[in-house]
Every structure is written in structure tokens, then in C-alpha cells.
Design goal:
five-stranded antiparallel sheet, single chain
């Protein structure tokens, strides 16, 4: 059993070397681009829907995508490391509390909707300010920041006064 797992790991490393796979989870809306061969011609077809399950099994990993097409639910199972998979795009992240969303099969309309996971942006890009501070004295930067703060507080106080005046009328 160990030998088989070792062979699969080596094969998986060679597959991942030439391919970038997007990280996604059940509940996410994904757009899967699949290579389809029709005779001598080859084309890419997109399949966009909600990922309802994901099976992790090394090289045998797969995921199921469900969409509603012309009022009919359509599900398709994709092999994650298949050479027929061109790319996977994450459209939106869903906020779910289960690993398998098979209950969506019985639902339609509003009850089949999944809330969107809102990702918070933490931190501010400070790189432009650091470059400016190198050329300006530290004392002048402090004074300019105080002036900006005093201007912003004055504007905020004016807005509060205007709001209270409007409420009184």
C-alpha cells in the first residue's frame, strides 16, 4: 500500500509542476473550463455553478459542480488533476457550514441561494508613504498630519451640526 501511495505522490508532483490549481471549497461558485475533443478539433467549454462537494483522495480527488440550466438541475463531477481540465476560476466564495451540499438538489429559487463570504481586507498599503517620508523631515510630517486631523475633525463637527439642524426642522 505504501508503494502505491509513493507512486501517486510522485505522479501528483509532476502534474502540479505544470499546472496551477485554484483553491476553492464547497459552496463556492466556480467556472470550470474543460477541454473537449470533437473529431480533430479541440475546444474549451465553460461549466459555471456551485461546488456542492469535494472529495480529497490524492490523485483521485474530485469535485461536483451543480448549476440550473433551463430550469433543470445539472451536476457534473470533475477529476481535480485531470488533463482535460483547462482551468478553474473562483467566481465568488460561499458561506456554508457543511462539507456536502446535497440538500441543494431539493431546493429551487431563493431557498437554494448561498450567502457570500465577505473577506475582510486587513492592513493598509503603506509603501507610498514610506517613500515620501525618506525625502521629508520627520518633524514636518508630524505637523502636516496634525493639520489634516484638525481639518477632518472640523469638517466632521460641521456635518454633525448640519445633521442636527435638519433633524430639528
Amino acid at each position: 500500500m505504501n508503494r502505491i501511495e509513493d507512486i501517486e505522490k510522485k505522479h501528483l508532483e509532476t502534474i502540479l509542476a505544470g499546472k496551477k490549481i485554484t483553491e476553492f471549497f464547497p459552496g463556492d461558485t466556480v467556472k470550470v473550463n474543460v477541454r473537449i475533443v470533437e473529431g480533430k478539433r479541440q475546444r474549451v467549454q465553460a461549466f459555471e455553478g456551485v461546488c456542492i462537494s469535494k472529495k480529497k483522495g490524492g490523485i483521485n480527488s474530485s469535485f461536483t459542480v451543480r448549476k440550473v440550466s433551463f430550469g433543470e438541475g445539472v451536476e457534473r463531477v470533475f477529476q481535480l488533476y485531470s488533463p482535460n481540465l483547462d482551468s478553474i476560476e473562483l467566481i465568488r466564495s460561499g458561506k456554508v457550514r457543511r462539507a456536502k451540499l446535497y440538500y441543494l438538489r431539493d431546493r429551487s429559487g431563493k431557498s437554494a441561494r448561498i450567502n457570500e463570504k465577505i473577506k475582510k481586507k486587513l492592513g493598509v498599503d503603506l509603501t507610498p508613504e514610506i517613500k515620501e517620508q525618506d525625502s521629508i523631515d520627520v518633524g514636518s510630517v508630524d505637523n502636516s498630519n496634525k493639520e489634516i486631523k484638525s481639518d477632518s475633525t472640523a469638517e466632521a463637527q460641521k456635518e454633525k451640526v448640519q445633521d442636527t439642524n435638519l433633524k430639528q426642522k
